Each structure stands twice: as C-alpha cells, then as structure tokens.
Amino acid sequence: MGVVEGTVSLVNPMSDANLRFSIVGTPIAGTALFCFLALGFVACGGGGGNQPVPFTPTGPNAQVVVTTGDQSQLLQPGPTVTFGTGGSQNSPVITVNEATRYQPIDGFGASLTDSSAWVIWNDLNSSQQSALMQQLFSPTAGIGLSFLRQPMGASDFAVNGNYSYDDVPSGQTDPQLVQFSIAHDTPYIIPLLRQALAVNPLAKVVALPWSPPAWMKTSGTMNGGDMNTTYFPSLAQYFVLYLQAYPQAGIPIYAVSVQNEPLNSTTSYPSEYMAASDESDFIANYLGPTLNNAGLGAVKILAYEHNWDNTDYPEAVLASSASAYVAGSSFHCYNGNVSAQSTVKTAYPGNDIWFTECSGTVGSSFAGDLVWNSENLLIGATRNWARSISLWNLALDQNYGPTNGGCSSCRGVVTIDTRTSPASITDNVEYYVLGHLAKFVVPGAHRIDSNTFNAGGIEDVAFQNPDGSIVLFALNSGSAPGTFSVSWKGTYFNYTLPAQSVVTFEWK
After folding, report:
1. What is the pTM of this model?
2. Is the dihedral of CA 297, 233, 112, 318 positive or negative?
3. Which of 357, 430, 459, 506 is catalytic?
C-alpha cells in the first residue's frame, strides 16, 4: 500500500499571497485519505468520508459496585469498565486527579450504643453474632466499617435507664472519683468492641458523654441541666480514668468530645447544656493539661459535636486558648446545611472536621434516603472536609429500640427482629450507604480532586487509598438514567447509572 506525497500551490482570493499545502495521502480500503497542512492547520478528506477513531481499551480495569433506588441491585458487583482512548466521551465528564489531595480519612461507621450492643449480644445466637460482626466490619467479607463513636455512659439509647461511670446516691458527690468504674460496659459493649477491632484492626474509636455524672451538674440529674463548673477538675479526671480503663480492656481511644450536642438540654434523656465559653474553659484549663500530664496528649479533642446550623460555637472554641488542644470540630446532620463545615474550615484551616452523627428515620423511602445520605453525607460531608462519616445506632430491634426517653423513630444500620426464632437481621438503607465507601476507602486514605456537578444530577467524590488505589463514588439523584464519563490520566470510560442510584468504582 503506497503513500501519496506532493505539494499544491493555491491563490488565496483574499490576499496576494500564494499558499503552499503539503499533501499526504494513504489509500484505505481502496479510498485515499488526504490530509492538508497549511499554516499549522490540518484538514483531512477522502472518497470514504471522515473515519471516526474507535475507542481503544488501554486499561486499567475499574471494579464496579452498584446500589439502585428500586433495590434491584444492592451493593451489587457489576461488569468491570476499562479506561481507554478514542471514541466519544459522554457528558458530563468527571475528571479524577490524585495529584491534588485534601483531608485524610479516618473512617466510616456508627455507634455501638448500649441498645445496639444489647440487641446484638442478647438477641442473636453466637453464630449469628459472629456473622454479623464480620458482615459489618470485615473489609473483605463485609462492608468494612472503620469508625465507632461510643457514648461514655447512657444516651437516649440505653436498656435499663441512665448510668455513668461514677454513680453515687442522690445528694452525694465523689469529686475524687473513688467510685469510678466501667463495669457496666464489660458484659457486652466491650466484648463487641473487641470483636469489631479484631475483625478490622484499622477501626478507630471516638468517645464522648451525653451527660457527666448527675452529681457534677447543677440539676442533680443526667437528664438536662448545666455543668457545675466547680467540678471541672473532676470531669477532666473522669476522662483520664476512662482513657486509661478502656485501653486496658483492649479498646484504644482515638479521640474524645467534651459533650454531645451541648446546645440540646432536655429532661427526656441524658443531655447537658454547655456554652461555648464553658467548653473552651474546660478544654484549655482542665481537659487539655490533664490529658497531657497523664501521658494522654495523643488523644484528639473534638469541639462542638452538634448540628450544621451553628458555626459560631465551634469558631468560638477554636478562637479561644482551647485551640492549643483542639484537633477540630465535629458535626451532626439534624439542622442546617453541610456547607457549614467548610465555613469553619475556611475560618480555621489548621483544624480538621469530623462528621459524627445522623440517623435514619422509620417510614422513609429507600430511594429517598439513598439519595439524601449520598448527597449530603458521603459526598457533601467529605467534600466539606469531613474525615469521618458516622451514623447513629449500629443495630436496633423491630421496635426501634430499646430506647431511653429519646428518639422513638430512629432506625439502626441493621434491624434485629426478635419476633422470629432465631431472630432475623435486616440490612437497612444505611447499611448500603456506609458500604459504598467503607468497603473501599480505608483509614489513611485521602480525598482527592474530582469535579462534580449540580445537585439533581450526577454528583461525585474521589479518594486515594494508601496502596495507591483510587475510589470514585458517584450518585445519580435524577429521575432518569444518567450518562457520564470518567476521565483519568488522559484515558476515560463511559457509564450510565440508573435513576436515584449510586456506584463505586475502584482501580489502580
């Protein structure tokens, strides 16, 4: 097959200059294709018309896992997709660039509350219990949960009412903490935490009180009221004793928060009002120095621990002398907008962000919850600097309990139904939400750069694991199938995602 070469002189009718074109032609299947080069421009033509360049797979292959809003696919592996060149890309194009890295990731998980631990320990037989812990925490056999946010004492999900680690009869006090004990947790909470850490040794545990012991409060009860600041030294030592006892029981503690939802004081369940000025004072002058003196300075301290609707509180703590001890701020989902996390991060870029509580609600739709959680938590919270995504109860029974005076419509990540023998286990939408990141993004990963698009269509977030593998999570929140392309290092693949569905891609 020959190559035709030559030159042609043409007169430009718009000027006096003659233009010389180079011609290179190659016969293709009986038809010559000619390309003309003039002043740096190339034009090609031939008897056969324009010849599209076909898509050529060049690798790597990306693994695909899908969950659809209609539940026809639930963390379902799909056919692999292969990066390549040529062909035509869909629009929009998600471009992933690991050269730009953002926050590190600590993990994804939920809380083994007293109620959650109780139903797992008491309502399942030993083989069911072992299988569930593998399903929840194993990165290979399960969804790889890697973050546990643990109440220090009773919350609104406790089996037998209120308890702290230093309870004394009404009217008495124990400022020296002579009565301190974690004995309440040893029958079932600590054994399950040990199991979780054995299944996933990378998992991190964060601890915090819903209320300090009743005798430390002006109200004399764990249900609502204010801290008696006279007992700040005792409260700091309370944290120290907990942070010594739990590791001795085999549960290292990664971080603590001073007070769950400090702006929510209610007489319905363990809670406490603590102003930002008091939290700042406690951290700066008591908790921070006391932890350091006890050799516990490596334990992170998280400020705030409440909803997105208030940025003044965490900013006030970070602006105070407490900032010397505070790693960052933690947020809940029940009011406000996730962008609040970026507001605080922008104001205090040296301090990190954690997202630590959101609960499913009885009676909501699977598709609606899949979209909301993916948009606001998996994508929204991480794109707004969160190092963690933690939901509320890991497991509850068919009555959404046991409860302790609080939420009666909160749903666990799984439901354990004791009306059957043996009990049956249902994986709720929250299980699939967490699984789409927890199974693929390991502690120590970083969020990396990817462009995303407006809510109501294709949205995404990307990560790179310590082993170099890349994870891209995408949501189609629209009412029709959505097509898009994923571009990486000059290659791409096309993909179509069903309506109200999510997909995780992983490649290396």
Report:
1. 0.90
2. negative
3. 357
